[in-house]
Amino acid sequence: MAKLMATATCTAFSGVLEGTGERVGRRALLERVGFLAQLSRELTGALVAARWDEGSLEVLAAGVDERGQDLPSKGWMAMRRLNWPRTLTPPAGVYVPDRVRRGAEEYAARTLRLALHRRGIVAAVLATWPDDPSRRTGGEWAALRAAVPAGVSGAEIRSRTRRIRQFVAGHGQLPAGLCALEGPPQVAGQVLLAAMDRQQVTLERVDAATARLRVKLPLRAAPATGRDWAWHVIDIRLPGTIAPDAVLHTPTLRPAPAGRIAVDLPHSRLVPATKASGHRVALGFDWGVNTLLTGTVGRLTGQGPAKRVVTDGRPLVFDATTVSAALHRLRGVREHLAAKRDHYRALAGGLGSPHLAWGEHLDRARVLQSEHGRVCARIRRLNASLAWAAARWAVDQAAALGASVIYLEDLTTLEARGHRTGNARLSGQVRGTVAEAIRHLAAKAGITVVTVPARGTSKLCPGCLSRLTHHPAPDRLHQRGWKWAHCAGCGLSMDRDHAAARRIVSRGLLAQAHTTTDRATGARTIRTTVDGTVALVRRPKKATRRLRRQRRAEQAPPRPRGPKATEGKQRPTPGRPSGTRHRSARRAAPAQAPGHKTSRRMPDVRTVPATTPTTGAVQRPAGHDTTTPAAVSGPVPGHGVPAPHRPEDLLPAGRRRLSHRTCRQRTRAAERTGFHHLHATEVHPLTPRFGPPDGNRTRPRRARKAWKPQAHTEF
What we know:
Elements lengths: L1 E11 L2 E3 L5 E2 L1 H25 L3 H9 L12 H7 L16 H30 L10 H10 L6 H18 L6 H4 L9 E2 L8 E7 L2 E9 L10 E9 L9 E2 L3 E5 L3 E12 L9 E7 L3 E11 L6 E4 L4 E4 L1 H31 L6 H44 L3 E5 L10 H8 L3 H15 L2 E5 L16 E3 L12 E3 L6 E3 H15 L4 E3 L6 E3 L7 E3 L8 H11 L27 H6 L64 H6 L9 H6 L5 E2 L35
Parallel strand pairs: 11-15, 13-22, 15-16, 16-21
Antiparallel strand pairs: 1-10, 2-3, 2-7, 4-9, 5-6, 6-7, 8-10, 9-10, 11-12, 12-13, 12-14, 14-23, 17-18, 18-19, 20-21
């Protein structure tokens, strides 16, 4: 078993003073949490600015103190071992408990330790600075790769290179290090309660949906003595994502927008341990702009050099085109509001306070700032909902198909390039949130999540590894585009994202022996690229009617000898009047008399006009009577058959089918995601063909609208 750590954001509305039992309202509680967050922010910012130099970062990177002993893993303990907080003093006349200072020191240590990663990249880039930074040679790239820390992507290297080039353009020389290249990091107004003990905070679980937080908060912005601090008991409503058996850990308090108190509550639970290698069935997903996720299932067959990857050819699509368009529109509204806000602030700054329109411009800027915050909050909520919906769909597909691993593109190797509109749409995607959500949900289901290199997945053909050409559509192969992929070598023609998903699942299954696990985060990744072809499983041919009858005759038991059942019959059986009778019976049946027509069933819908509305009723045109349900063929409710619960159940069978024929039907997968305009592939489990190798050679039929493959192979 393994431990799964997660963080849920809760909201605290009111509290109670422990000594007096006085009720503390939402506004007063928010104000006191703001006092504590501001004190913590001032102390943390002062400590980070005091230790933002190359010597202090070098000591933290070494991990030993002056006596040569290893520094503790807890940040506040490492700070006090190095005697760094001795110069940190609160403002004059302000009393700050030692536990609050401990939380500020922990926050400062985490901020400085995060800067060590950027410091290593900057030092490696400066040590191997090329003659032409915009275009390194092969040897310069090799030297840089050897100097940077392990796991650094090309996107990080290019980002730091651009930052250094900007510094050189402004100062005329290379920076001495990270501290000269960047200023001290900004810290947020939050309180890390995890660094404090029971003298400052306690947390206990009341029931499955409630937790009780007991914390000491200041009663004023500048508390002078210990009497200005009081214990507050706050009840926190736990969301449904926290399981009843989850273990709660000390949270982090922070004032949130719209007058809320956000409680970032970490929790952990035991989940099944997953393996890094030894997978046979996998699911690979490719990222897209409009189609957020496009996946396919693959199976590893054979042993040693003869192993290969096969797939059934069915694409799994999570189409979020409508949601992406709404997000893009909201981003445009956000930028427009920000531009108008800055314009009014600039006008107010140019006019000065004595001017009559100075206050009016500032009022308009405040209104625009408030509206800008609402739009930003809406974008965040929509992004989070879309990310978790896509993650739940992906994990459900993997569980239904029997896959033990999910392969994703490495997000650190992706970088927005090209036109400005494309960069905006690509950078605004929620791929990072989707990846984290997939890892979280897959861990609960016992499924491994591994990232593979993304470079070249859309360039080569998954069938023959030849170079692909990209076109707008399959019937426009003479034009250049990006949506459709075509291979001139093997004749493969399919959606570009679907072809990339095949390459991703192939890279993961063939290179799973090179999977590495990050000890700090537990994230698994593959950095070694192993390319191989992906074969398509051939669907078995359907037996003819003659063969099926012959098989049924061979499997049926022998018929006993005896008198025939039709013995003594004087006349032939008349043909059925229905149009569904056998063609031989239709030929033998006599013709109907002129003017007569045989109906197959009684009509289920009344063809007479509606009843005359009574006095006071709503006028409606002639049609079906809504006051009395129409007669329905079949059993009568109340005689052992339950009554229908949906309006469409009152319709006849034929009309019931027609009522669901819309231009774009709502699939069950879309209903589960919570977006009525989202289109995703339904979750269908496969037969054991792609499951455990138990010898079963049956396979489900291909989806009706799947693309026809160009090449077929067998196991």
